[in-house]
Amino acid sequence: MERLLIRGGTPLCGEIRISGAKNAALPVMAATLLADGPTIVGNIPHLHDVTTTMELLGRLGVELTVHEGMEVEVNTATIKSLQAPYELVKTMRASILVLGPLLARFGEAEVSLPGGCAIGSRPVDIHVDGLRAMGAEIEVADGYIKGRAGRLRGAHIRMDLVSVTGTENLMMAAALAHGTTVLENAAREPEVINLATCINAMGGRVRGAGTSTLTIEGVERLYGVHHRVLPDRIETGTYLVAAAMTGGEVRLKDTAPALVAPLLDKLRDSGAEVEAGRDWVALRMRGRPRAVDLQTAPYPGFPTDMQAQFCALNAISTGAGSVTEGVFENRFMHCLEMQRMGADIRIEGATAQIRGVERLTAAPVIATDLRASASLVLAGLVAEGETRVDRIYHIDRGYECIEEKLAQLGADIQRVPD
Hints:
- By secondary structure, the chain is an alpha/beta fold.
- It is built from 14 helices and 28 strands.
- Helix 4 (about 100-105) packs parallel to helix 6 (about 165-175), helix 8 (about 235-245) packs parallel to helix 12 (about 370-380) and helix 10 (about 305-315) runs parallel beside helix 12 (about 370-380).
């Protein structure tokens, strides 16, 4: 076990590179199971969840080769198992993404019910019901989802909830199904578009990515390709908020400003000066930020994965702001930890009412999920004294070398053994 120690009070200044997106890398790595022949996935972030996914693929018998330049080559010709075991899946909900590809290509799959962050209910019903509609026989027993199928067949599926992983899993399954599948109420996230782009490069026929209706015409075979993962929009937003909170000036390169437009708008509302180019974004904040109001929603709305970071920003802003969580029902646990640092936060149902204070005070805090851990690091960057953030294994699931990147921008932060 490790922890982060942070001494606040230093404005962040300088330039860093943004990593590839975890939420794009994981489904693309699962999609390699669909392909005949090796697939090379580029711009892979070095994260615990990516390592877990590689270990999972390796457990299935897939041959993996790590190349220079953040590329991983995946060859499924050596696959020998169709079971995703509990000891791997329990730490990461995205592991369920191997279910659709395994069923579609090999006609069989046994995937443990997934684990991950405790941020609310994310049921597997959407995945199971959709695959059953495509002809799979599925039972959930002994903690596993067990499925069998001949060749899946196209179906018209309307998902009850907008689900990113549900959309991705069913899209991958449909890519090799017989006939045409229509997915209504599909997720529109850039990561879904990135996956569709990868499948189409493999020889698939996915239309409508980025809209709420996907049409997938199944093909007989898919082939290996060279695919690049898009930049991480949540990492981009996190470092921009960190700079705004500390009154700093940063430039982030190798990112995609178009993917973070709602975040840039809110940061401008907070008083930040923001500029952007094709693959970079820069922010400068003079003085304390202003509190902002926001409500999270599925893309293209404000991302739930940036809610905690903006709670931290509001906590030290001038004025008061409300943050309403419209995606998950249990995602304000970070607010309780920020209160220990002196934040003035009141939770009213799905809304956090936050009145900014002039300064926070360092305290030992505990990370309860991935994005909560990031918000506590941000709070530590502006708190008086030394903040200790425990259970940082959460943050390692989604941020590549966060202490190194923050130190590169001037932060006083170090990783130490527990």
